[in-house]
Amino acid sequence: MPVMKTGPDDKRLDRVVAEARRQREERERGYRERALKRYPWVCGLCAREFSRENLSELTVHRRDHNHDNNPPDGGNRELLCIYCQTYEHSRQLDAERSKDGERRGVGTTFKPFADLDAPLKK
Question: Which class in CATH covers the domain with range 24-95?
Fold first, then answer.
């Protein structure tokens, strides 16, 4: 397999990406810590309670889905378990799709039980 040579531009890009990731992680730690101090360790949807042992399964969710909207008072945040967080994001994606018309008027055509009675009629 040929060895890829990296030039100065590649190294600069790697540094920029690494720095952006570091800054993002630092911001996330900050708002997560503030949210965990502010709110009880309970999922805002399913009401599952968390302890230090399973706290990693509790996520900070932005109610308006805007990752740039982080007011200092925490007004745009809520704590959700990883399952409810996934559910909320899938609801948001479905809403965006229906606004775009991707799913409007499209129904399923598959009918799994359509010929179920055929063997009984024989």
Answer: alpha beta
